[in-house]
Design goal:
heterodimer, A: 341 residues, ABC transporter involved in vitamin B12 uptake, BtuC, two-stranded antiparallel ribbon, globular, B: 512 residues, alpha/beta, Rossmann fold, 6-stranded mixed sheet, 22 strands
Chain lengths: 341, 512
């Protein structure tokens, strides 16, 4: 049999080196390192300070993006199924408002529910998560069973959830939250929540049936169905989880700000999508990893903190941010094309 | 035991021939990351001939054709068109210089009309620069008449059958006044009758002096229509023969570098155990009154023209499109199959007709593709996939099925069609099914892989599985099946035993 000749004609596959395979996040991680180095060099040249060697700045950098990070973990999963979630920013606000309504302290004179003050923190947390879950499930049902395109279904939720959070107190902010509740937003707690959520879903996507089904649906929904996956039920699950995480992010936001406002989480959904896409998640579905999204989130954080550090005008910040997002994805698309042809 | 084939690698007098040849390529090489797809390949196409290219999946035929059509750029080598050195930087570049290609996956715009598809980018315009639809349609009518194709130029392509779409592609290529026409497995989705029509058109084109490069895995049609046959193996040119001066065995020998004993292995006789029993199954508007039994150890062929409803019956039995009425029993138990999930939990497996559309997860790797159906029942504990166990099972399965890849972490997109098919077969075998439905299991697959798949299906039946085999290829269905059920327009028109079945009888029942 011509086994030897075939083996010679097909040399070792690139990317496999012994048992070690190059992590897909490596490229984007190098981009992150590049941005950090650039800030460091510019820092020394322009201001005479180190960018990296400043523990306080590092903490703040990560702290700032933790909320977007929590959302992005959910959004990544939705995008892997080939969908999109535009509602997460608004769900943050809805969940923050509703949770905060049940987190007010008795000392606060203008409590929303005067008879329900000083509740243990678990109550507002449960309510916030539940609100997110409901919003997500609604998205999922519309997408999976009513077959509304995800863009439209979640666009509707984006508008409605924002409306609900305004209607809830007729636009008034909710303040006077209990110390027990605001503790979740204090110190490095948001970062901790972000890391735990990221780890849970990293494991879920890679090592559980839930994860395998999520990728399969995004890669080819018809093949997934023929392979015995209950596609509709699974999609509802994924959107519900994304909503739940947005709800959790709402709780963290309110706790950190020690108040809740209907304008919270404005445009967070776009930062979350950007983070996922920078991290290598394909909008075509079937491709994406939590590790990449975490790096994408950190890149967004480092960018804004680096700009502030280098005293770049806020106007330029947004312009450059947009450019960097598109550049990162362009590089990724280009590399994929090279790999395929 | 590599057997070398004694063929002259480069025909003598290649320099003089270059002048008389319509198309000549020499020394073409092309590498992709990790794979040498073409290694110093040369070949000549003469005017007014059909030149067949043969080789196993991954032999380099399609790569060579894509270079000729301007889709890929060669790393080395030269192309001569009518004796003049030519370079094709883009598909349009190749097309305007007279090389047209009809792809395996048709590249038409479904929501546009036949005429719009043919003239896209060159639409006749009136003096205001607005597209002149009337003139465009008239030009199309003339063109289609010249090719003896009966199609309405104003029909939208999405309403056309695959065969008609193929005709549109041909008309489009001819409208560029192509001197060279490349056809990549044009009959893979056509019925015998549609293929015959295609061959007539090819015959006319040949008379006009057009050179046709023809890729196909179907031996009988190669010998029917081609003048010369060139064989490739592992990215290398093996040799060229005049079709009249060679035979099937010699070509197969050149393609695989070894002998293949038999295409359709003999199988044992089925038992009397009825595995699957279908009564009066109806899907309103598609098929009705379908009844049959499938026994353990039996291969039940399901024949019929495309559109006869044979694939729909398979989809309904598997729960993809639940029946509107009728009854399905598995081992005597009445079952209600509302989804593929239900069918799988009842021990059924379904290899779908369209590998790309409803089979492969192209962006995922071999492991992810193979394991997915088995995750419903095995290999999962408390939601966690038993990664090591299933990876071992998939590796083992890849080895058994001889999947040619560099491991279970290769992305399926990078595999050849035959290997993708083997991965999908592996997916179903991992579920240990008792009933297998195979819809066109060997479409677009090379001889060697085909023989392997046939042998495998036979051995599954021998081991007690029941197999429903749907195929458009007569030799396959005649060679493999114990009984053959024939459908026409949503009804079963007859069931033939192995001994009485012939191609003629099947065709009669299929077109009744």
């Amino acid at each position: 049999m011509g086994k030897d000749t075939t083996a010679a004609a097909i040399p070792e596959y690139r990317g496999s080196f012994g048992g070690w395979r190059k992590p897909q996040e490596l490229n984007i991680f190098l981009v992150l390192v590049g941005i950090v180095l650039l800030c460091e060099v510019c820092g020394w040249l322009l201001i005479g300070q180190s960018f990296v060697w400043n523990p306080q700045r590092l903490t703040i950098t990560i702290l700032q993006v933790s909320v977007v990070g929590i959302i992005a973990i959910g959004v990544t999963q939705v995008i892997i199924t080939g969908g999109i979630d535009l509602s997460s920013g608004s769900v943050v606000a809805a969940s923050a408002m509703m949770a905060a309504g049940f987190a007010q302290s008795a000392e606060w004179s203008k409590a929303l529910y005067p008879s329900l003050t000083d509740l243990p923190a678990i109550v507002p947390i449960a309510i916030g998560v539940l609100i997110g879950l409901l919003a997500g499930m609604t998205n999922g049902v519309f997408v999976a069973y009513a077959r509304i395109p995800p863009f439209i279904a979640t666009l509707g939720m984006m508008v409605s959830a924002r409306g609900i959070s305004k209607w809830y107190t007729k636009g008034q902010p909710i303040s006077g939250l209990t110390d027990q509740f605001t503790a979740i937003g204090s110190a490095a707690w948001p970062v901790f929540v972000f890391i735990v959520v990221a780890m849970i879903f990293h494991v879920a996507l890679r090592y559980t049936r839930y994860g395998k089904y999520t990728y399969a649906i995004g890669a080819n929904v018809q093949a997934a169905r023929v392979s015995g996956i209950d596609v509709e039920r699974h999609l509802v699950k994924v959107y519900a989880i994304a909503g739940m995480l947005a709800g959790l992010a709402g709780i963290v936001t309110a706790a950190r700000a020690q108040t809740a406002q209907s304008g919270m989480g404005y445009m967070y959904e776009l930062d979350a999508i950007a983070a996922a896409v920078i991290g290598g998640t394909s909008l075509a579905g079937g491709v994406g990893r939590i590790g990449g999204t975490v790096i994408g989130v950190v890149i967004l954080g480092v960018m804004s903190s680096g700009f502030t550090f280098l005293r770049v005008d806020a106007y330029y910040q947004e312009i450059v941010k947009g450019l960097i997002i598109v550049t990162a994805v362009t590089i990724d698309v280009y590399r994929n094309r090279q790999k395929r042809s | 035991m590599q057997t070398t084939v004694a063929v002259t690698r480069t025909p003598p007098g290649i320099e003089d021939k270059r002048q008389s040849c319509l198309l000549s390529v020499s020394g073409i090489s092309k590498s992709f990351p990790g794979v040498v797809a073409l290694d110093d390949v040369s070949f000549q196409l003469r005017r007014g001939t059909v030149h067949a290219l043969m080789g196993e999946n991954g032999a380099g035929k399609s790569t060579l054709m894509k270079i000729l059509a301007g889709i890929y750029q060669p790393d080395a080598g030269e192309i001569f068109l009518d004796g003049v050195s030519a370079q094709f930087k883009t598909p349009l570049d190749a097309l305007t210089q007279g090389v047209g290609m009809i792809h395996q996956e048709l590249n038409l715009m479904p929501s546009m009309t036949v005429a719009e598809n043919i003239w896209i980018g060159r639409e006749p315009r009136n003096r205001f620069g607005i597209i002149d639809h009337r003139r465009m349609n008239r030009l199309s009518v003339d063109l289609l008449a010249e090719l003896k194709i009966s199609l309405n130029p104003e029909a939208e392509v999405r309403h056309l059958s695959i065969a008609s779409r193929q005709m549109v592609e041909i008309a489009k290529a001819v409208s560029y006044r192509s001197r060279v026409l490349i056809m990549d497995e044009p009959t893979s989705a056509l019925t015998e009758r549609e293929s015959a029509h295609l061959f007539e058109i090819i015959g006319d084109l040949r008379k006009q002096g057009i050179g046709i490069v023809y890729i196909s895995h179907k031996m009988h049609e190669i010998f029917e229509i081609s003048d010369e046959i060139s064989v490739f193996r592992d990215g290398k040119y093996i040799g060229t023969h005049a079709a009249a001066a060679t035979n099937r065995d010699e070509i197969i020998h050149m393609m695989v570098g070894r002998d293949i004993s038999t295409l359709f292995p003999k199988k044992n006789v089925p038992t009397d155990d009825v595995l699957l029993s279908v009564r009066d199954l109806t899907l309103r508007g598609v098929f009705s009154g379908v009844s049959f039994d499938l026994r353990a150890g039996e291969i039940l062929g399901l024949a019929g023209l495309i559109g006869s409803g044979r694939s729909n019956v398979a989809e309904t039995v598997f729960g993809v499109t639940p029946a509107t009425s009728g009854e399905i029993r598995i081992k005597g138990q009445r079952v209600d199959l509302k989804s593929p999930r239900d069918a799988i939990s009842n021990g059924m497996a379904f290899l779908t007709e369209d590998r790309k559309q409803s089979g492969c997860f192209l962006v995922l790797d071999v492991l992810e593709n193979m394991q997915i159906a088995a995750l419903q029942s095995q290999f999962v504990k408390a939601g966690f996939v038993q990664g090591k166990v299933i990876a071992a099972a998939c590796s083992e399965m890849s080895k058994t099925l001889r999947v040619k890849s560099s491991g279970i972490h290769t992305t399926v997109e990078n595999l050849s069609g035959g290997n993708q098919q083997k991965v999908l077969i592996g997916r179903w075998l991992l579920t240990r099914p008792g009933i297998l439905i195979l819809d066109e299991p060997t479409r677009g697959i090379d001889v060697a892989a085909k023989a392997e798949i046939h042998a495998l299906v036979s051995s599954l039946a021998t081991a007690g599985a029941g197999v429903i085999l749907i195929s458009s290829e007569m030799p396959e269905i005649l060679g493999m099946s114990d009984r053959i059920m024939v459908m026409h327009e949503g009804k079963i028109t007859g069931v033939l035993d192995r001994d009485e079945a012939t191609q003629v009888k099947i065709m009669e029942l299929a077109s009744k």
